[in-house]
Each structure stands twice: as structure tokens, then as C-alpha cells.
Design goal:
It is built from 18 helices and no strands. It has 358 residues and is an all-alpha fold.
């Protein structure tokens, strides 16, 4: 694969995000970096050859991911491949129990679940299946496999506009998401107080379900824990214009969230969600995109509190605006907060190479 195609694919992934809204009509999105990346990529491949350039990029990405492993404070994936299912079962049970007793312990549980969601290795499915077979009457294995299938559903879908998805990509997404839904619902059958299940079900259903279904999962989650950060954030994503809703409804939900911030300060970044959504509009929905205004909105969002997606999206717009040093700074921050997400590493490598003039 040529260097230009490689970078174009990455940029399309982040700047060409689209899904169907509730009526099934996909909104229009753009990939403003694609044409420029192709032209710059062609020039680069003349000097070094496409294969050498692509191999070097892949090596840089692998090195970035390897370096970030020290930021991941759990050994869940090595334990999975070692088939240490008893340990994993106990770990998730303990983390869920700690969270149930103290909602401020949510981040400990989600750190593990995020690592599982970001695994996205098809070969891991057999390990999760064996875990479920050995612990079929307990919820942790179903929760873990459901989270894994959620990540695989996003991987199968890709991040292209919905109208550009191939039949096999749509079917792959549906297959994995259906498996995820079955597992998450099964975990809830065993333990109906699993807020993470509702949070991931929101994340899945925002792809193809009407808002009232998403609202029902949100309501169930908040009956158990109104202070949950992940469920609130996933619900906010479903309300942003990129996913077919509107700013007014988003702003109303933010106001509803503010009273909970006193007891859970980790929710404070959500006050920046409206600015974040406006940045998305400027960067992805308006034609031509208004990158400078998007950066201002993302910066406003960050002023309310850190979230990896705020930095990631501003970093992408910095790349689009050829502000590569600023992009490196933002993407570095995003990696610190979400070290297991490969897409962040891909763009960080791209920005570093541009900064170096490569």
C-alpha cells in the first residue's frame, strides 16, 4: 500500500466519520485532508519508494504503541492470552464491587474495560469464548466479551461515511454488535446493576437505533448511578450533530448534568461538550471547513476539563491546518489519557513525521 493511500485512509477515518441518524439518512461529512495528503504522499514516495515509507510508518506506530504500554496500569490482555480466566473473573468482580460501593472508583473499572475494547484482535475471540465456557454462570466473562465485541464492531464498521461503507463492512458491524448486545444483556440478566453494560449499549445503539431506545438505556444507567461518567459521555455523543441530533438537546442535557459535578468532579469536562460539538460542526459539517473556528471551540471545551477526545479531535484539526507541532502536543496528551487506542498513535506518528519534515 502506498504511503499516500495509507495516510489518506487514516485521515478519512477520523475526518470522514458518519453514521445514520434516527431516520436512517446519513448526514454529509467531509475529509478535508485527503486530497492534500495524496499530493504530499506522492511526492514522498518518489524519494523513498512506497513500501519503504509504509514499513517505516508502521514501525513508528508500533514503537509508539509499545512505548505507551507503560501507561496501561493493568495486565488484562496478557492474562487473557495466558488463559488466566479465574484471575480476570475475580478482577472484574472486585472492580465492579468497589465501583458499586463508591462511584468515584468508576475509572478503575473502565480502565480495564477500555483496554479490552481497544484490543480489536480477531484471534482473541476464541479466548473470550473459552472464558465464557468456563465461567458461564458469572457475569464478568459476558461483560468482557460484550465489550470486546463492541470494539470489534467499530473495527469492522470503520469510520467512513455510512453511505461509503461496503456491504461486508455493514454486515461485519452488525454481526459483532449483535454479539455484543447478547453478551451485555446476558450480563445484565445475571447482575442488573452493571452500569457499564448500559454505557456500552448506548455506544452500540447510537449507530442504528432511534433516540428513545438510547434514552431508555441512559435512564436505566442513571437509576443505578447518576454520577457515572462513561454513560453520560456516551449519551452525549449520541446527541451531537455528527450523530444526527442537535445542540439544543445537548445543551439541555449538560445543564441536567451540572448538579452532579459537585459530588463527582470528574464530570466537569462535560460542561465543554457543547463547545466540542460546535467544533465538530466547524471541522466536519460546514463546507468549506472552518478549522480556525473549530480549534477555538475545541480549546473552549478543554478549558472545562481534560478528555482524550477533546485533544484528539483538536489534534486532527491542527493536522488539517498544517499546525503539526500543536498537533503533536495534543495527540501526546490524548495518548497519555487513552494509551490503548491505536488510531491516536497513527495520527501522532503522522504529526511527528510532518513536524520533522518527513
Amino acid at each position: 500500500m502506498q504511503y499516500s493511500r495509507f495516510i489518506c485512509t487514516l485521515l478519512l477515518a477520523a475526518l470522514g466519520l458518519a453514521v445514520t441518524n434516527c431516520s436512517g439518512v446519513p448526514p454529509t461529512y467531509i475529509a478535508p485532508l485527503a486530497a492534500a495528503s495524496i499530493q504530499r504522499g506522492r511526492a514522498a514516495t518518489h524519494a523513498t519508494g512506497p513500501d519503504q515509507k509504509t514499513d517505516a510508518i508502521q514501525q513508528d506506530i508500533a514503537a509508539s504503541i509499545l512505548q505507551a504500554q507503560s501507561l496501561i496500569k493493568n495486565d488484562v490482555i496478557p492474562r487473557l492470552y495466558a488463559k488466566d480466566f479465574a484471575h480476570l473473573n475475580q478482577l472484574l468482580s472486585d472492580l465492579q464491587a468497589h465501583y458499586a460501593n463508591d462511584f468515584l472508583r468508576e475509572s478503575d473499572l473502565y480502565a480495564v474495560l477500555t483496554t479490552i475494547a481497544d484490543l480489536r484482535d480477531p484471534k482473541a475471540e476464541s479466548y473470550f469464548n473459552e472464558w465464557v465456557q468456563r465461567f458461564s454462570v458469572a457475569y464478568p466473562a459476558y461483560l468482557a466479551r460484550g465489550v470486546y465485541y463492541t470494539g470489534m464492531g467499530w473495527e469492522a464498521r470503520g469510520m467512513k461515511p455510512f453511505k461509503d461503507l461496503k456491504t461486508e463492512e455493514i454486515e461485519g458491524m452488525k454481526t459483532y454488535f449483535q454479539k455484543a448486545i447478547r453478551d451485555l444483556e446476558r450480563a445484565l440478566d445475571i447482575n442488573p446493576h452493571l452500569v457499564p453494560c448500559y454505557a456500552y449499549l448506548i455506544n452500540i445503539h447510537m449507530n442504528f437505533s432511534p433516540q428513545y431506545i438510547i434514552d431508555s438505556y441512559k435512564d436505566k444507567a442513571f437509576e443505578i448511578d447518576p454520577y457515572n461518567v462513561t454513560a453520560r459521555w456516551n449519551y452525549i455523543l449520541s446527541l451531537t450533530p455528527l450523530w444526527g441530533d442537535n445542540i439544543a438537546k445537548l445543551e439541555s442535557f449538560i445543564k441536567e448534568t451540572i448538579p452532579y459535578m459537585t459530588r463527582n468532579p470528574k464530570l466537569q469536562f462535560i460542561e465543554g461538550a457543547a463547545a466540542f460539538a460546535k467544533g465538530e460542526i466547524k471541522a466536519y459539517l460546514e463546507k468549506p471547513p472552518k478549522f480556525a473556528e473549530a480549534i477555538q471551540y475545541y480549546t473552549e471545551a478543554i478549558s472545562f476539563g481534560d478528555h482524550w477526545r477533546y485533544y484528539w479531535r483538536r489534534g486532527l484539526v491542527y493536522i488539517a491546518n498544517k499546525q503539526y507541532r500543536e498537533a503533536v502536543s495534543d495527540l501526546d496528551k490524548a495518548v497519555q489519557m487513552r494509551p490503548s487506542d491505536r488510531s491516536v498513535h497513527q495520527f501522532l506518528v503522522h504529526a511527528r513525521r510532518r513536524t520533522a519534515g518527513s
